[in-house]
Amino acid sequence: MRKLLLTLVLSLFSVMSFAQIEGKWKTIDDETKQAKSLVEIYKKSDGKYYGKISQLLIKPENANCVNCKDDRKNKPILGMEIIRGLKKDGNEFTGGTITDPKTGKTYKCTITRNGDNLNVRGYIGLSLIGRTQIWQKAN
């Protein structure tokens, strides 16, 4: 009976943590396939999820977001909140935005977890028109 209870608790914990995105994630450059940065995703008191760049693994061309058009304009990329306002919807996190500090463009965002990877999709308008990056769980 004790083994059955332990198995049930562990399997419940693994299912619950599978759909979570909180923690540090390694972003991968689409072109070079090299790790670019570490993004820390966290939940604020409003119940929504946010992500900020906690470490740069490749030195950017400019240390500040010179192309950003909002409150992030000319702010340092390191520490910048690039994910804002995601809400958990089943196994997906949607309804928020993601900003590319290189171009300064902001996109709608959907994130799904697949094991130790996140599928991070940025898009304009419909989700069909966009691109997906795979982020890896950081140790």
UniProtKB/TrEMBL annotation:
Pfam families: DUF2147. Residues 23-137 form the DUF2147 domain. Keywords: Signal. Residues 1-19 form the signal peptide. The keyword Signal applies. InterPro entries: DUF2147. This is Uncharacterized conserved protein, DUF2147 family. It comes from Chryseobacterium wanjuense.
